[in-house]
Amino acid sequence: MPVQHGELAAGRWFELTILEQLGNVGSEISRARRWMTRNPAAMEAAVFRALELLDLTLADPRHRQSSCRLREIARARKVVADFFLGDNQYGWSGEALQRYFDAFALAARNARTE
To answer: 14 in the Ramachandran plot: left (φ > 0), alpha (ψ -120 to 50) or beta?
Structure first.
């Protein structure tokens, strides 16, 4: 699959904080949820972008020092894929996923204003 976030994949992603990274994933989750019933192809594209961002987050060398952080990011990736593309065996709702990622976006915004 071609890279959707070329500039970010080229290194800019690694300049963002973990809060900003996961907050940006939340933007794609929001898009995917918006298109779930109206346009499955657009939903799928947003999900693949979210998964790509999660993969970039997992590849960020700063997170290698924390196995707990890596596990959390990997779990989030697994839940996103399962909810949108799988059988939702973990039982998450779209609202719960949105709240999870929105918390990072809010924390990132609060960190910038401090």
So the answer is: alpha
The whole-number pLDDT of residue 3 equals 60
Q: Where are the domains of the chain?
A: 14-113
Running along the chain, 114 residues long, what does each successive block of 10 average in pLDDT?
A: 57 92 97 96 97 96 90 97 97 97 95 78
Closest to 1 (Cα-Cα) out of 57, 53, 52: 52
Q: Report the alpha-carbon distance of residue 48 to residue 41 in Å, rounded.
A: 11
CB 60 within 8 A of CB 43: no
CB 88 within 8 A of CB 82: yes
With tokens 């593309």, the residue in question is 85
CA distance 61 to 18: 12
